[in-house]
Amino acid sequence: MVGLISIFVTGLFLGCGPCLLGCGPLVISYAVGTGRNAKGSLKLYFLFSLSRLSAYLFFSLSFFLFGSLSARYASIARYFFFAGGLFIIFIGLLMAGGKALGHGLCRRLGAVFLEKDKKTIIILGLLMSLIPCAPFLSVMSYISLGRGGLFLVLSYVLTFWLGTVVSPLLLMVISAGRLYSGLIAKGGYLKVFNFISGSIMVFLGVRMATSAITLY
Known about the structure:
- The chain has one domain.
- Helix 4 packs antiparallel against helix 6 and helix 4 (70-101) runs antiparallel to helix 10 (190-211).
- The protein has ten helices and no strands.
- By secondary structure, the chain is an all-alpha fold.
- It has helices spanning 2-16, 18-33, 38-66, 70-101, 104-113, 119-129, 134-144, 149-165, 168-187, 190-211.
- It is globular, with a radius of gyration of 18 Å.
């Protein structure tokens, strides 16, 4: 029980620190840019979190079965950074100017990836989890390389994930949804905020893609 509490607190601290800084701008920009109210933004957040859980299970089971893969994973992490950056840039461009471009293809892409869509936020959650920070990899190594068996590893992963879910990002996403339904949509600022949100995502995508060059 003590171990589970420690893992939960660790997830809570990461969710309030590195995870918030890394995922917060992305999730909030996507929620506002795609016109989600508070309820819709909350659904997006939990879909994003569930997709991250699948990545946590991937890392923990890989570490458990094959030992620490941190060094070997680092050699291919740049490709996830680059691919993730390009995808985020693509989504950001659709949000910022897809409809304004007036092309049928842009409208169709927007319908596929933005309008009442679930796959995009799931992909974003997976991408953000497949390019993890060093503290996260350390936690996964600690969880998976202990002597407790597979059941204990899975219990630790689920507990750690619950800790990351209880994050200030949860309240920030709900607040962003309320801001959209209470001010942006009613005030006629939709196109402006779509452009701002999309531009933020393009910036985040460019930064992520270019950071792949610095990874060794």
